[in-house]
Structure formats: C-alpha cells, structure tokens
Amino acid sequence: MTGANSIGEGVGRVETRFADISLPSEGFRLECGRSLRQLRIAYETYGRLSPQKDNVVFVCHALSGDAHAAGHHGDPERTRGWWDAMIGPGRGIDTDHYHVICANILGGCKGTTGPSSINSDTGRPYGSSFPPITVWDIGEAHRLLLSHLGINRLAAVIGGSFGGMQVLEWAIRRPDMVSRAVCIASAPRLSAQALAFDVVGRDAITSDPEWRGGDYYDAGRGPVLGLALARKIGHITYLSQEMMERKFGRERM
C-alpha cells in the first residue's frame, strides 16, 4: 500500500487482499443450520497497525459496497474507493492514527465467498444452492478474518445503512471486542414498507429471463436488466425528500 501525506492525496494506491480462513471440520456454521466448507474473505487495509494492535477501525460496507473503501487501484480518476472522502490522512477516519480494515461481506460476490464461488462438492458455482445468511453470519465471518489477522479488539466499528446493521450486531453480540460503535443512517430492523419494496425488487430480478432460477453463472450473462430495475426501486427508498425534489421535482421535470 502506498501512503500519502496530505488530505488531497488520500491513502494512494491500494490492493485487495484475500484471506482463506481456517475452519473446523464442520466448516463455518451458519444461523440457518447449514455450513460452508470453505471461507474466503476479500479485504483492504489502510494506515499502520500499532505494535499493540489497538488502533484498528473496522468499516462495514452497505448492501452494494465492497472491500474497496479508500484509495485507488491504479487509476485515481476511475477506481476511487466508495468512502475515499472519509478515510485517509487527516480525514474523518484518520489513517495517521488508525489502521482501517474493510472487508467484503459474506455472500457479497466481490471476492468473499458467495453464490458465485465454486462449491467444492460440485465443482460449479453455488448459485441458487448457496445457503441463506443473516447479518450475524456476516459479522461472524468478519470476526474470523480479524482472528486470522491476529486482531482481538477493535478501537471502533463503523458503517452506514446495511453496514450500520452490522455495527449493531457487533455492539450487541460482541461488546467485548468493540470499544466504540458508530452506526450511521441505519436501524435494527426494516419496516414493513421497506420489506415490501424488497419484495418488488426481488421480483424485478427473478422476472428477468436471464435469472435462470439463480443459476446463471455458467450462462455468460446474468439478470442485468432486472438488477438495474431493482437498483432503481431501492434507490428511491434511500433518498431524502430534499434529494427526491432535486431528482424528480416538478420544476426539474
């Protein structure tokens, strides 16, 4: 990782790393009762780890995010991390003081084990056979990553939206590992209306002919049109009234 000395430069060029987690013979046990035989987690780090390993800030990403939270992958204009404005020297999460870790969530399919991963039992992508997971499963997978990295306690865990839900799980179920919890624009559960929007979004995806029952990884094309529509539906629920007026207000129309 290339460091930087000014707020303008940020953390510079970074790379995504991958950790293959050592699991017991029964695998990684999920809340649904099923297990994963293998667990790979994609993650990135920014800033120096203190000798005492007591300056770690763990960043939980939102639903459509990934491990690439800050810096760039070679092209500063096109590959900036999704929270680059917040993470770096002199920024909100100051890498002059903290060692920051962000990891792709379980099931995220951006480097971490998920439906696109190869099922060792079949030699093919999991697809629709990937087991259902919970926010707690995601947190436990990340706890195993931290153990893999030799980190036993976090100076802080921080996240917004779906990332904030992960923060709440950390604070409630693993308070011994967390000194501070920063939950942004989130909630402990979805409202009935939000769940209804989720149903419509899922229907948009599964109605796409390229969905193929969830087993589309070998087909060369996925349900991109359905995903795009689901994203539009979801985006409407993320916006404040002020932002809705800016995008869809009568004066703009």
Protein traits:
six-stranded mixed sheet, single chain, 17% strand, Rossmann fold, Rna Polymerase Sigma Factor, Chain: A, disordered N terminus, alpha/beta, 253 residues
Explained architecture:
The protein is α/β, with parallel strands linked by helices. It folds into two domains: 1-188, Alpha/Beta hydrolase fold, catalytic domain (Rossmann fold), CATH 3.40.50.1820; 190-253, Rna Polymerase Sigma Factor, Chain: A (Orthogonal Bundle), CATH 1.10.1740.110. The protein is 25% helix and 17% strand. The chain is built from five helices and twelve strands. The protein has helices spanning 135-148, 162-173, 192-206, 224-238, 241-248; strands at 17-20, 28-29, 35-36, 40-46, 56-60, 87-88, 93-94, 99-103, 118-119, 124-125, 156-160, 181-184.
**According to CATH, what is the class of the largest domain?**
Alpha Beta
Give the total of domains: 2
What would you report as the Rg, rounded to the nearest angstrom? 19 Å
What sequence of helices (H) and strands (E) makes up the elements? EEEEEEEEEEHEHEHHH
The percent range for helix content is 25-40%
Distance linking N and C termini: 46 Å
